[in-house]
Write a structure and sequence with these properties.
2 domains, globular, methyltransferase activity, methyltransferase
């Protein structure tokens, strides 16, 4: 695509069928994202380690010794590695190749037996049951309503009787705010989408009927080449989260206090955490 086609694009933006998520599974993109996960200078990609350690301390108080733990969207394995060091049996699933490779290397270096799977969490099919499943950092909201329901039903089936699910979600207002954000330009000598000088135009749209927020990233190179990336987030009202979990096989749903599960500076007031038990 060239700049002329970009200029002629109609508003509001509309994503293509393959643009629901940014390319986490692209090798180069995932490597650049990993660098942001590992950074302790910001917390927009992963939480700072001091916050994760506080969260893991609390998780340990909720789990029986040696519990089987599954982290869906585990990234570079920050939670699984700390939990494995505490004696829990951990499995992590993510479809970022750089993050999974890094997690595997860290586990091997520490002498930890952690099962890491390079997969889209929607394709994961475990051969064992888990006592605890976690899905953090608003991971659930990047899936369509249908995919979110299917994944939560799978989680209920993967848990032992009265097993627990911890899911961290975006508030409805936050997803809507993102969809209504004004367009912005940024200049990059190198960035997340391209390891070369470029301009990045970011545009947003909110669909009231579908309760979805769409974001379109236009990467414009020095030679005028334009590449587009898109992502979509599903918004849920507080009551809809509770109904969703109940319909998917969970009960005893509670909202976790931010004193024990802080959301980080960047996402304060934008994310919150629910924990529920499987009905089986």
């Amino acid at each position: 695509m060239n700049i002329n086609k970009l200029i002629s694009q109609n508003l509001p933006i509309r994503l293509l069928p393959n643009e629901s998520k940014i390319p986490w599974n692209d090798a180069d993109f995932s490597q650049r994202m990993l660098e942001n996960h590992l950074s302790q200078e910001h917390d927009w990609a992963s939480r700072k380690l001091a916050v994760i350690e506080r969260q893991v301390d609390w998780l340990c108080s909720q789990l029986a010794p040696g519990a089987q733990v599954l982290d869906l969207g585990c990234g570079p394995g920050f939670y699984t590695q700390l939990l494995a060091k505490r004696g829990f049996c951990c499995t992590g699933v993510d479809f970022s190749p750089a993050s999974i490779t890094y997690a595997q290397q860290q586990a091997q270096a520490a002498g930890l037996d952690i099962d890491y799977q390079l997969l889209d969490v929607r394709s994961y099919r475990p051969t064992k049951k888990f006592d605890f499943i976690m899905m953090t950092f608003g991971e659930l909201n990047v899936f369509s309503a249908a995919d979110a329901k299917s994944l939560l039903k799978d989680c209920a089936n993967w848990l032992t009787p009265n097993g627990k699910l911890l899911v961290e979600v975006h508030s409805f207002d936050e997803v809507k705010r993102q969809g209504q954000t004004e367009p912005s330009w940024q200049r990059h000598s190198q960035g997340l989408f391209l390891d070369a000088p470029h301009l990045l135009l970011t545009e947003h749209a909110w669909d009231e009927a579908l309760q979805t927020s769409s974001t379109l990233f236009w990467v414009i190179e020095e030679n005028g080449k334009v590449t587009r990336f898109g992502s979509r987030m599903q918004a849920w009202q507080d009551g809809e989260y509770l109904q969703l979990l109940n319909e998917c096989g969970f009960n005893k749903i509670q909202r976790i206090d931010t004193a024990v599960w802080p959301s980080s500076n960047t996402f304060e007031g934008k994310l919150y955490t629910l924990m529920a038990c499987s009905k089986a």
